[in-house]
Amino acid sequence: MATSFNPKSLVESAWKIIPFFQSRDIHATVLLYTKELGFTIGSEEPHFASLFAGPKAASNIYFSLCREESEFRASSAMIALGAEQHEALYAGLLARARDAGTGSGLSAEPTETFEIVQEIRDEEWGFRQFSIKDRDGNLITFFRFLEGSNGEELWAGN
Hints:
This is Glyoxalase/fosfomycin resistance/dioxygenase domain-containing protein. InterPro entries: Glyas_Bleomycin-R_OHBP_Dase (IPR029068), Glyas_Fos-R_dOase_dom (IPR004360). It comes from Orbilia blumenaviensis. Pfam families: Glyoxalase (PF00903). This protein is of the alpha/beta class and about 160 residues long. It has one domain (about 15-65, about 75-150): 2,3-Dihydroxybiphenyl 1,2-Dioxygenase, domain 1 (Roll). Residues about 100-110 have low confidence and may be disordered. A hairpin with a 5-residue loop joins strand 3 and strand 4 (about 60-65). The strands form two sheets. Strands 1-4-3-2 form a four-stranded mixed β-sheet, with helices on one face. Strands 5-8-7-6 form a four-stranded mixed β-sheet, with helices on one face. The protein is built from four helices and eight strands; from the N terminus they run H-E-H-E-E-E-E-H-E-E-E-H. The chain is globular.
């Protein structure tokens, strides 16, 4: 008698997901994500980088170098933040875009490193979010829940 295969019970053990993005310049990508967005370097090689943020590297992105323009594909990811941190990150990025003379990035040229492509707003599905594109066109949407936990217990030492 064959045993029952239940993939749901197996993937319930998942504890992390790591999106894999492409980059046209690994070092420039690392500078953007560390200096402008606050990520930490896990590793940086000429053809690969691992960048992370949050407790236990909860938000981790891998980047691989893509030299062939015809093979380049931009990717996207969503990153959940605490409520106060979400608002402060948006305000800081908006100020940097304005300082660079780009306004919000929505109706002007992007900065050399990022462009705000969706202003902060509340969505009907219960998120408050904004989106940026990096220099390669990869889309990062930062969000927080309008109701419920926004991870504050992770920073409170609980």
